[in-house]
Design a protein that fits this description.
This protein is mainly alpha-helical. The chain contains four helices and no strands. The chain has one domain: Arc Repressor Mutant, subunit A, CATH 1.10.10.
Length: 70
C-alpha cells in the first residue's frame, strides 16, 4: 500500500486524527514499529494499532469489491 491509497481509504472512515494517520502510514508503508511511530507522532500505540487494522480491513474490502466488478 502507498500513502495516497491509504489516505483515500481513510475517507471511508470517521477517523480525523492526522497524527494517528501519519503514524499508521509510517508503520504500514515504511515498516516502522507501531510503538516508535506512535511516540514520534505523539499518539497512543493502541490508536495506531486500531487504525492500521482498519486500513487493512478496508483494503481487503476494496479488493473483494473490485473482484465482483469483473
Amino acid at each position: 500500500m502507498n500513502e495516497k491509497y491509504i489516505r483515500a481509504l481513510i475517507t471511508l472512515t470517521r477517523s480525523t486524527s492526522e497524527p494517528t494517520l501519519n503514524a499508521a502510514i509510517e508503520h504500514i508503508c515504511l515498516g516502522e514499529s507501531q510503538a516508535k511511530s506512535a511516540v514520534k507522532h505523539g499518539v497512543k500505540q493502541e490508536a495506531v494499532a486500531r487504525l492500521s487494522k482498519r486500513i487493512k480491513e478496508l483494503d481487503k474490502q476494496v479488493t473483494d469489491i473490485i473482484k465482483l466488478k469483473k
